[in-house]
Design a protein that fits this description.
alpha/beta, five-stranded mixed sheet, two-stranded antiparallel sheet, 31% helix, binds zinc ion
Length: 331
């Protein structure tokens, strides 16, 4: 028969066989039952008590307040710890030293850390999980579920849920408290594999559409046709059109153009670019001779200028009074 012991055991002091329930199959191990010692004994002292055949009790492991653990029964032996044979036939039992005694029976952090480390190892090794239901149906059981006893004491009992969660989290690959992990490292015990969340597939960000600067004439065309192809450095189209007035000046500047340069573009070019019907204007004409039926506003429209400009250029006092044959300066 194999003598399976915990890698966390600092020593082995085997209990007298008549203090145990005898041999069992480790395949049936599926529970854990932490008890408190009625005193602050060392692990060795507690285990030695169980070598006395008249003691009538034993435990799989004894843990001292310093965190030292002594194996009292190999896992192939059912310990006699919990006043319940059925429980102990399948349970890993503990006697944990307490540092205060009644009424709270405080247990040291070091003892609890060792307990947690060993519970993780037991669950991994024997293939069970902790399930603390507060009843004997759970896999984390208490002495006082079976008989009227103060064991495991209010303090250790208050830790059962937390211990259960810590152990199961470790089994689930969520890691363990640093103090417990340190024990795994110290005793060179294999830790439960960490389940690292699968990295999200990296979808490469689309390369920002770089805006190729277009010609002044093309910008002028866009202004004319109410479009705007400008794309900013983040690849977004901030404007659907170039806008008017100060808005247009600001936008053109941001895109690397000057409004005055745009204005220098021959306005005749713009309708050409837009595909609009072009009314040819005698570009060289600087003077217009008034014909019958012409009005100053009509002449202004014909040459792409304004009535006001013509009035100013020609010192016209009354825009409604122009005469046939009159020479109108256009520039
Ligand atoms: Zn007990």
């Amino acid at each position: 028969m194999a003598n399976t012991k915990s890698p966390f055991a600092d020593a082995v002091i085997i209990a007298a066989s008549n203090n145990t329930h005898g041999a069992r199959s480790i395949k049936n191990i599926s529970k854990a039952t932490p008890h408190h010692m009625a005193g602050n004994m060392t692990a060795d002292a507690a285990a030695k008590l169980f070598t006395n055949a008249s003691r009538g009790a034993s435990a799989t492991n004894c843990i001292g307040s310093d965190g030292r653990m002594v194996q009292g029964c190999y896992y192939e032996t059912a310990p006699g710890t919990s006043s319940n044979r059925a429980n102990d036939l399948v349970s890993c039992t503990y006697e944990v030293a307490n540092i205060s005694g009644a009424p709270n029976w405080f247990v040291s952090d070091k003892a609890i850390e060792k307990l947690i480390a060993n519970l993780i190892w037991e669950c991994m090794t024997f293939g069970f999980r902790l399930n603390y239901t507060g009843t004997t149906l759970g896999t984390m059981t208490r002495h006082n579920m079976f008989i009227a006893t103060s064991c495991p004491g209010p303090y250790l009992q208050s830790k059962f849920l937390e211990i259960t969660k810590t152990v199961n989290d470790a089994l689930d690959g969520k890691g363990m408290p640093k103090t417990v992990e340190t024990l795994f490292d110290k005793y060179k015990v294999k830790k439960p594999a960490l389940k690292v969340a699968a990295p999200k597939p990296v979808t490469p960000a689309p390369a920002p559409t770089k805006w190729k600067k277009i010609s002044l004439a093309a910008v002028a065309k866009e202004i004319w046709t109410g479009k705007c192809s400008y794309v900013d450095s983040s690849g977004k189209k901030p404007w659907t059109y170039w806008g008017n007035g100060d808005t247009r000046i600001t936008r053109l500047k941001k895109a690397g153009y000057s409004d005055s340069d745009i204005k220098k573009i021959n306005t005749v070019e713009i309708p050409k670019l837009s595909g609009a019907k072009v009314t040819t204007t005698p570009a060289k004409a600087t003077v217009h001779t008034v014909k019958k039926g012409e009005t100053l506003s009509g002449i202004a429209a014909k040459y792409g200028t304004t009535t006001a400009k013509l009035i100013a250029l020609n010192y016209i006092k009354n825009a409604n009074l122009i005469t046939v044959g009159q020479k109108i300066k256009l520039k």
